[in-house]
Structure formats: C-alpha cells, structure tokens
C-alpha cells in the first residue's frame, strides 16, 4: 500500500554532453502540480446533470471526485533543538516560499518547511524538473480522523506544550469574505502529507529503538490565513526512534479532522518540522502536501 505518482525523467539535452545520458536528471526543489484538475470534476458533474444538484454533490463526495493540488519540497533540512541547518551546508535555511508565508517565524526546533497552495487553487501546474521519485510507503495510507487526532494530542500534551496566540479575525475575516465574492467558494475535503525523513539515528533508551514511543522528532500541520498562522497546530507524524534510514510516511486527514474542518477558502496548510530535547534531530529529504477541495459544502 502506498502512493505511486512518480514521473519519468526528462530526456537529456544532447548539447549537455555524453555524461548527461548517464547522470540522473535534476529535479526542481519546489514543484506545484494538479493530479486532478477542476475541469475533470466539472465533466463528471455535467455527466450527472439531470440529477438534482444535492444528489450530484453527494455522489461526487462519495466518489472522492474533488480537485487535487499538490506541492512538493525536496530541499534537504536538518532541524534540531537549537535551530535549523540546510542539508547541504551551513547556509541559512530558505524554502523558496518566503513571499507566500512572510508571517511565519521559525524557532529553536520549530521550522516551517512547506506551504500549500491556497484551498481552491486552480493555477497552472509547474512541471519543470519533475523527475522520478519513489513515494511508496509501507505504513500508509492511514486516515487520520478526529479519534486518532485526539489521541495524539492527549498523549503528547505535557511534552509538546507551546504558546498558542489567539488572533482576532474580525477585520481580516471581513476582508477575506469580500475578496471571495467574485470567485467560486471552495471547501477543503482532505489533506495528504507525505514525508521522507528520519531522526538523529541513535537513542539512549534501547527499549524504544525502532518504535515511535517517546520520539522527540515529529511533524505538525497548521493553517495560514491572511499571512498569519491561525488556530492550533496539529501533530500528525513522528519519526521512528533511532531510525537508521530515511522512511516514507503518508498521512491523510479526512473531513472529520479539526484542521480540515477549520480550513476556509483561500487558506494555506503549513508543514512544520519539529525536534525537542538535547541531541534530537528531524532530518528531512523531502515532503509533499496534497489538498483535495470541492466547490460545494460537505453534506
């Protein structure tokens, strides 16, 4: 079980030399594509046009016929309790999305890695440099609904305390509503997070080796609205304790998850890379966010 959305490598340019035929094609570090566009969903809806709209929407929801927008970041990153390092050296960490997330601030062991496109994104996909990559996950997919989300939150409550700044939404909410009057409104249906990562590779507690018990290396998801993070973050995945190799994890948040329910049209989802306690690290090779959205409210 897993996800297989790999793409064939581009044919090398003959002008690049003979070596180009033997070296892997470079992949863009930040990509944006649409595995299923709004036009496909519209065609399905049109085919069911003789049925009442409410019935059509229910059928499309049951079939999962939503638009799909995917963003991937392949920039190596090492996050530890003291901050972050670029995986290729000691340079300052940059995601390439700073203009989209100017309001996000990193902290010790707390670094944002990837920001999704807005809920309802219908933009042109960016296929430049998309090379073949293996996202097969032995663990997934796992639907993470309200029950497991509550368990994760409660199980780590004492050790993952963080300040949650309550932000009033008054004027920003009005501005968001005004800006959406002239465009179709979209509702988030599902979030899929894929990570390829590991921790520091060692532990002083042999009893937890190779498990997820007492892991201090994990990922969180949050919402970005109007350039500011809103609401609480949600812990969604730990790294294996003392992982000796990079491991793929694929987590799906369905419509029962509080983050999906809280998302609004135009919101973005943020991936936060976390590590806590001395010696712990979160070493990331790549991550991808896929948003499924529909132009009608859930039933």
Task: Write a compact overview of the structure shown.
It contains five helices and twelve strands.
Give a written overview of the molecule.
The protein has 299 residues and is an alpha+beta fold. The protein has one domain (23-159, 185-294). Helix content is 15%, strand content 31%. It has 5 helices and 12 strands. It has helices at residues 38-47, 53-63, 146-155, 170-179, 258-262, and strands spanning 30-36, 67-73, 77-80, 83-86, 110-115, 142-144, 187-198, 217-225, 228-238, 247-253, 268-275, 281-294. Strands 1, 2, 3, 4, 6, 7, 10 and 12 form an 8-stranded mixed sheet that branches. A 4-stranded antiparallel sheet has the order 5-11-8-9. Strand 3 (77-80) and strand 4 form a beta hairpin. The longest helix has 11 residues, at 53-63. It is elongated. The two termini are 29 Å apart. Mean pLDDT is 74; it is low at 1-16, 87-91, 125-132, 158-171 and 177-181.
Describe this protein with a few key phrases:
15% helix, four-stranded antiparallel β-sheet, alpha+beta, 299 residues, disordered N terminus
- Mean pLDDT across the residues is 74
Task: Compute the number of helices.
Answer: 5
Rg calculated over all Cα atoms = 20 Å
Percent of residues in helices comes to 10-25%
The main β sheet shows up as: 8 strands, mixed
Give the structural class.
alpha+beta
- Span between termini: 29 Å
* Backbone shape: elongated
Number of strand segments:
12
In percent terms, what proportion of residues is strand?
A: 25-35%
Total number of distinct structural domains: 1
């Amino acid at each position: 079980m897993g996800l297989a959305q790999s793409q064939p490598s581009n044919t090398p340019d003959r002008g690049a030399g003979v070596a180009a035929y033997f070296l892997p094609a470079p992949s863009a570090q930040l990509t944006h594509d649409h595995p299923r566009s709004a036009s496909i969903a519209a065609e399905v809806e049109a085919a069911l046009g003789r049925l009442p709209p409410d019935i059509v929407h229910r059928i499309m929801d049951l079939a999962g016929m939503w638009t799909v927008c995917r963003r991937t970041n392949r920039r190596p990153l090492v996050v530890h309790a003291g901050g972050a390092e670029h995986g290729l050296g000691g340079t300052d960490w940059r995601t390439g999305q700073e203009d989209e997330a100017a309001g996000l601030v990193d902290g010790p062991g707390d670094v944002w890695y990837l920001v999704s496109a807005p809920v309802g994104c219908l933009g042109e996909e960016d296929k430049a440099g998309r090379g073949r990559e293996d996202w097969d996950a032995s663990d997934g997919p796992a639907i993470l609904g309200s029950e497991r989300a509550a368990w994760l939150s409660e199980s780590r409550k004492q050790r993952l305390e963080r300040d949650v700044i309550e932000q009033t939404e008054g004027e920003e909410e009005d501005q968001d509503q005004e800006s959406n009057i002239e465009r179709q409104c979209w509702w988030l249906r599902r979030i899929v997070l894929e990570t390829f990562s590991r921790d520091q590779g060692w532990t002083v507690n042999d009893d937890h080796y190779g498990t997820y018990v007492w892991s201090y290396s994990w990922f969180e998801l949050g919402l970005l609205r109007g350039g500011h993070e809103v609401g609480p973050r949600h812990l969604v995945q730990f790294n294996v304790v003392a992982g000796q190799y990079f491991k793929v994890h694929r987590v799906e948040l369905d419509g029962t998850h509080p983050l999906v329910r809280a998302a609004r049209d135009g919101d973005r989802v943020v991936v936060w890379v976390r590590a806590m306690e001395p010696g712990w690290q979160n070493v990331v090779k790549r991550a991808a966010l896929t948003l499924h959205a529909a132009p009608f409210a859930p039933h």
